[in-house]
Design a protein that fits this description.
It contains 8 helices and 6 strands. With 294 residues, it is α+β, with helices and mostly antiparallel strands. It folds into 3 domains: 90 residues, Imidazole glycerol phosphate dehydratase, domain 1 (Ribosomal Protein S5, domain 2); 47 residues, no CATH class; 138 residues, no CATH class. It is elongated, with a radius of gyration of 37 Å.
Length: 294
């Protein structure tokens, strides 16, 4: 069963404590390539998220967006930096004394002008608590995305099987045409050789026929046709399996293409050449589909 790398899913969750929005988009890529956009509270979970998504999605360029709004009070503390505050006060006092000025510095002035006096400190996030909040929504998001990918994969599989059936029909035509022409080609080759050498004395006709047979064997495409049928049969078997099939099927397409090229180069027949062109066109369409298969 084929699975596409292209998928999309969006989920929203709201409780009395928080609102969580997740969005995932995936397109084809040679490897797993995650681009997360996380709220700062979830930065500590990035490695876990990456590992989880890679196990589930396997391949593709994945864009993940997470928005988290907490309805609870934020874990922030405000701490005075007494040493800095005392230093500022002492410096202002000395300045006023030296310039014979009245020291009118108030606490409000200090907070307004001297931002280092009060430190804003965020309490570290509870990683396990955040993972408990995120895990099930993230799993449901990925399951929905995979469901979409499988539906698209099913449509791709139908199209690929239709093209494989067309290729099989074309291979059958090549086989029939080859059987019709191989004897004629062999006889024509032998006659051409004899015609060119008829004026040369002491020609060993048996040796000449043997050489003609060797040349005719070089025109024989029966082995290529057998391998071609075997590759097509293997392709159908792979389509019944689950898992990572994209690279395996792409390799099979390359092997089929190689056999077809050999047939085209060996078979000196215009009908077979035209059939080969049709097969190549179908193979190219299949290869384009496989670029998007996990």
């Amino acid at each position: 069963m084929l699975r596409s790398m292209t998928c999309f899913a969006r989920k929203e969750y709201t409780t009395d404590k928080y609102q969580l929005t997740l969005e995932l988009k995936s397109v084809n890529s040679r490897y797993f390539d995650l681009h997360p956009r996380l709220p700062k509270q979830f930065f500590c979970l990035e490695d876990r998220i990456r590992k989880f998504l890679k196990e589930k999605l396997i391949r593709g360029r994945v864009d993940l967006f997470i928005q988290y709004d907490s309805f609870e009070e934020e874990d922030i503390s405000f701490e005075p930096n007494l040493s800095i505050a005392k230093g500022y006060l002492k410096a202002v006092s000395n300045l006023c004394e030296e310039l014979n000025m009245v020291n009118s510095l108030q606490i409000g002035d200090m907070l307004k002008l001297l931002k280092d006096v009060i430190k804003v400190k965020e309490v570290a996030s509870d990683t396990e608590k955040l993972w408990d909040i995120l895990f099930l929504p993230l799993k449901e998001l990925v399951d929905e995305a995979i469901s979409m990918a499988l539906k698209e994969g099913e449509a791709m599989e139908i199209d690929i099987k239709r093209r494989l059936a067309h290729i099989e029909m074309l291979v059958g035509k090549i086989t029939t045409q080859f059987e019709k022409t191989i004897h004629k080609q062999t006889e024509a080759l032998k006659k051409r050789i004899l015609s060119k050498l008829k004026d040369i004395p002491e020609i060993d006709e048996n040796r000449l026929i043997q050489e003609a047979a060797i040349l005719a064997d070089k025109l024989d495409i029966s082995e290529e046709l057998i391998r071609l049928e075997s590759h097509l049969s293997q392709f159908y078997k792979y389509l019944e399996l689950d898992g990572q099939l994209g690279r395996k099927l792409d390799f099979l397409v390359q092997e089929i293409h190689r056999e077809v090229n050999t047939i085209a180069s060996k078979a000196s027949d215009s009908t077979i050449s035209h059939l080969v062109v049709e097969i190549k066109a179908e193979l190219e369409k299949i290869r384009e589909q496989l670029q998007n298969v996990v």
